[in-house]
Structures are given as C-alpha cells and as structure tokens.
Amino acid sequence: MNRRNLTTLLAGAALVAAALPHAAMAQDSGQPIRLIVPYAPGGPIDVTARALAERVRDSLGTVIIDNKGGAGGNIGADAIAKAAPDGLTIGISATATHAVNPWLYSRMPYDAGKDFAGITQMVRVPNVLVINAAKAEQLKINTLADLIAYAKANPAKLNYGSGGNGSAGHLAGEMFKQRAGIFALHIPYRGANPAQLALLAGEVDFNIDNLAAAAPNIRAGKLKALAVTSLAASPNLPGVPPLSATFKDFSIDTWWGLVAPAATPKPVIDKLNKAFVAALNAPETKTRFGLLLAEPVATTPAQFDSFMASERAKYQQVVKASGAKVD
C-alpha cells in the first residue's frame, strides 16, 4: 500500500470514528451502567431490576442499581430523563411514573411522552379485587355479582381502601364503581401496606390490590378474591374471573419496563434491548419472577413506546373521572 492510499484510508477511518455516536463509544468503554429505580429498595420493581442486572452482566457488563424514590416515582424518573444519553444511565418506567402521574400532578419535572426512549417492557402484574373474608361471609358475598348486588341494595354502606389518592388501587376502584353503577366510599391510606392492613382488620370492606401483595392473604383465607383486573384470568388465581368478563375491556394492570433518556442513539437502544430481552426470556427469569406473581413481558423498543402512549391516554380519562389531584 503506497503512502497516499494509507493516508486516505486513515483519514476515512478518522471520519467514521468521528461520526460514531458518543453514546455508543461511552457504552463500550467498560464503565458500569447505572439503572435508576424510582422507588425504595425491596419492592417487586427493585427485586426484578436487580434480577435482570445480574443476568445481563455477561452481555452488558456491570449494571449498578440506583434507588431514587420520592414524589410517587417522579424524582427517579426525572433523573433518568435528565441523564446524559450515552447508554450508561437507564431506568425503570412504571404505571405511576409514565401513565398516571402526568395527569395526577399539577406540575411535572419531566415530559413522560417526550423525555424517554423505550427499551423494553419488563413485567405485567394483574391487580385483584379482594374483600375481607369475614365480611364476605357475613354479607354472603361470594362473587363479583354478589358484591355489586349488595352495593346497589345498600347504597353508601360499602367502602374501599387504597394506598392513597391517585394510586393504582384508587383509580381501579373508581373505574370499577363507574362501570358497575355503584357507590363505595374511598378511604385513602399512606401506602399499599397500610391499606391492606386496614382491609385485614375490617376497617374497609374491599380493596383492589396488586396480586403479588394480596396473594399470601388470599391463600391464608383472610381475603377473598372476587376478580382480577387483567383482560384475561390469571393462572395464579384459578377460578377467579377477570372484571372484563363483566365489564367489556376493563383492564388496569400494574406494569413496568426499561427506558433511556430520549436522545440515546438507536444503536445503543437496540443493544440494550437485545440484552434485556434475552434476560427476560431466560427460563430462570420466568421462574424467579413467577415467585412474585409477575409475568415477564419482552417487547421491541417501538412496542414499548406505543404501549406507554396508550396507557397514558387511558389513565388521562381514569384520573379525570376520579377527581384525584396532587399539587
């Protein structure tokens, strides 16, 4: 090779290198990836994020979990949105942060529709309508139809609890009341755990709770499951029908997934998607998530972006109907 050809080749290589996204080079630098979880450690979202971080170690290197809770998930989600789009910071998007909060909070620090690039959905967990078992026996409520009939025959005698105004349990409860044409007083608590304790103590009559949280008390006979909120019945609750069997298209599941800052280049997103989808499809992941009654859901980035957009549109109507607002 003569000197002129070598010079031309080197110049061309330099141009190609300059054209490569900085993000792609940053991600391949061997630096750890930071995965922001916008909730406290120990919950189902945190547990599943840590499980996936372990499984992608061989393909992506070290993934460090960074818990940034507060403001209903908004603090952590904002940190994801404002991170450098270099592939080294990604995070969790969830029903609250990317579908409910944009309509619930008067002021948002980020734009859920514009500030993020979907990587893949991770998980879907149905919610379940549960009634205090002793109350169900006392009132002779064995089915969803029994609950609706009792509520209509006894106006204003039922109440239900939730983890707070604008929580998934509150919004699902209001949607259920609207579709069923019944009234039940909403009693908000400071979190899902206090709401469940109130249900177990008989302070409230029914809740719509996350299946993973309610399942132990359903199995113990302390709570009676009347319906799940997913479009289809859950294999984890044989014989319990979906609300959609009574009210067409009724669906309020809990979900979460992985997102990156909006400007993250497509090659970087595709690399992350490939690694995390493989981790989600691994038999070990399905077994581990199954212990949490969580169903792994692997998608393309475009599918997850479309899903989050449809969820935002759905919850805009649900939040408006509930009247819930956080200033």
UniProtKB/TrEMBL annotation:
Signal sequence residues: 1-26
One Pfam family hit: TctC
Cited InterPro entries: BUG, Bug_dom1
Presence of keyword Signal: yes
Keyword Cell division recorded: no
CDD domains in UniProt: PBP2_Bug27
Alphabetically ordered keywords of this record: Receptor, Signal
Highest rank taxon of the organism: Bacteria
PANTHER family attached to this UniProt entry: BLR1237 PROTEIN (PTHR42928:SF5), TRICARBOXYLATE-BINDING PROTEIN (PTHR42928)
Protein family per UniProt: Belongs to the UPF0065 (bug) family.
This protein's name: Tripartite-type tricarboxylate transporter receptor subunit TctC
Native source species: Acidovorax soli
